[in-house]
Specification:
The structure holds 2 protein chains of 2 kinds.
Chain A: H1 2-21, H2 25-45, H3 49-74, H4 78-87, H5 90-114, H6 126-134, H7 138-159
Chain B: H1 2-28, H2 44-54, H3 65-81, H4 100-121, H5 125-156, H6 161-166, H7 178-191, H8 203-206, H9 216-241, H10 252-273, H11 279-306
Helix pairs in contact in B: 1-9, 1-10, 2-9, 3-4, 3-9, 4-5, 5-7, 5-11, 7-9, 9-10
The chains are: A mainly alpha, B mainly alpha.
């Protein structure tokens, strides 16, 4: 169990690093999906199979395919790789890396202070997730749905054609 | 042993399906179909397999090599992995998971990656168009595939496919969930891009769509994965809406096999009967008809269960 966790965690960290550093956008996306799958495995090992399944269905499946769709439409030839290489020069990523290090330091301090992460609190089945969503977190769910409706209306407005405009 | 037996069973069934489909299509189109190799042409599949194995396995120089090789394997592996959660009969099945149905949905959406990556990695116009179409189609139809199954989950009270079958002992879910059943069948067809939803590979316009550049065993993987996909959707239709292994007199495994075969035959008949729509018609049908219908089904089912 522990070995599986460390393995999945190592895969997640490595593939995330590769997702950032690959010059080809599609390769980066593929590594990102691997990273999401590794995180799903971690959720599963921590006793949350429901969250693990939705991590794969929604993030690795739905949203990432949408990303890939956009990347494919925008063209991903050698030009895109050259642009990416330019964006990955040391000067560009030094700032973000420094900020990331601050976050890492915070995380380490927090972990050291509170000891190792708490042991998983048993299996979290679909029922408990559902009850939590319509119980204590109902307001958050409703606010999120408002946000999504706003995004949908915006998308419909942007995609609308005027009368007589060619298809 | 059980996983291996099921794996072999599925692959054999899918292989036999290649022959069965060609013979059935021929029957419905008033011709003979393959009838030369072996009795009733049964060994045609073996002949095809030998041909595919000995063909040159060509990776185009302009393709993205790693992803080009990865894509067919991804399609095949996800299709086969889904069978891990399919309960064949009491005591026959690979794993019983309390999120079995979600695992199936997850594997379907990961299979989409194989197709889309194949289209991109081939680095050719037709393949890319096929990949784009398949990305759009799978996103659309996945949205209401999940919704169409929610009715079943509400009635059974579980994502576990075994419990879903057991919950149908009094009445098959096709009766209370007829709308969910129909939308699931349409979404399933689109998910495995079978005719009439095979726009990603539409031979008439895109050569062979996302697998235009593939040959030899890599092509065979896409080809067999399609038949594994048909078997999967048929098996799940039987499990989710038609009581799975439940039935009188005959042993459970025979019932499961009969029900699955019925849907396989139905899918082949659809291919013989229906023309292919235009791509924008397909998308409009998905978002404007199927999505509202499955949402309404969910609303009504939820209201009835609560009241």
């Amino acid at each position: 169990m522990n070995a599986l966790f460390w393995l999945a965690a190592a895969v997640a960290v490595l593939s995330t690093a590769l997702a950032i550093s690959r010059p080809s956008p599609v390769r980066g996306l593929v590594y990102f999906v691997v990273s999401l799958l590794a995180v799903a495995v971690i959720f599963f090992l921590l006793g949350a199979p429901f969250v693990a399944a939705f991590e794969v269905i929604l993030y690795a499946g739905g949203i990432m395919v949408l990303f890939l769709f956009a990347v494919m439409l925008l063209g991903t030839g050698p030009d895109a790789v050259a642009t990416e290489r330019q964006a990955l020069r040391p000067r560009t990523w030094l700032g973000p890396a420094a900020l990331g290090l601050v976050l890492l330091a915070e995380l380490v301090v927090a972990l050291v202070r509170r000891g190792a992460a708490a042991a998983p609190g048993g299996m979290v089945g679909p029922e408990r997730v559902g009850l939590a969503l319509v119980g204590p977190y109902l307001l958050a769910v409703e606010i999120a749905s408002m946000l999504l409706v706003a995004a949908l209306v915006g998308a419909v407005h942007l995609g609308r054609r005027e009368e007589g405009e060619p298809r | 042993m059980m996983p291996l037996a099921i794996l072999l069973g599925v692959v054999t069934f899918a292989g036999g399906l290649v022959w069965a489909e060609r013979r059935l299509l021929a029957l419905w189109q008033d011709r003979y179909g393959p009838n030369r190799v072996g009795p009733f042409g049964l060994l045609q599949v073996v002949a095809d397999a030998i041909k595919l194995l000995t063909k040159e396995d060509w990776v185009p120089p302009f393709a993205d090599r790693a992803l080009f090789v990865l894509a067919p394997a991804l399609v095949m592996v996800t299709a086969l992995l889904s069978f891990a959660v399919v309960p064949v009969a009491p005591g026959i099945g690979v794993v019983g998971s309390n999120v079995g149905l979600l695992f199936f949905l997850a594997m379907t959406s990961m299979g989409a990656w194989g197709v889309v990556l194949a289209g991109w990695a081939s680095n050719s116009k037709y393949s890319l168009l096929g990949g784009l179409r398949s990305a759009a189609q799978l996103l659309t139809y996945e949205a209401f595939m999940g919704l169409s199954l929610c009715g079943v989950v509400i009635l059974a009270g579980s994502f576990d496919l075994r419990e879903i079958v057991l919950a149908q002992r009094r009445v098959w879910f096709v009766v209370p969930q007829i709308v969910g059943c129909l939308t699931f069948l349409v979404a399933g067809l689109a998910a495995i891009h079978r005719l009439p939803f095979d726009l990603p590979e539409a031979e008439a316009e895109l050569v062979a769509g996302y697998h235009s550049e593939y040959s030899g065993m890599k092509f065979a993987m896409f080809f067999v994965a399609e038949y594994v996909g048909i078997t999967l959707i048929s098996a799940l239709s039987a499990v989710l809406f038609f009581g799975g292994w439940l039935g009188p007199v005959l042993p459970p495994i025979v019932w499961f096999f009969l029900k699955t075969s019925f849907f396989v035959g139905f899918f082949i008949l659809l291919r013989a009967a229906l023309p292919r729509p235009r791509f924008d018609q397909l998308m409009a049908f998905g978002w404007k008809v199927m999505l509202p219908v499955s949402l309404a089904n969910l609303l009504v089912t939820g209201a009835i269960v609560l009241s």
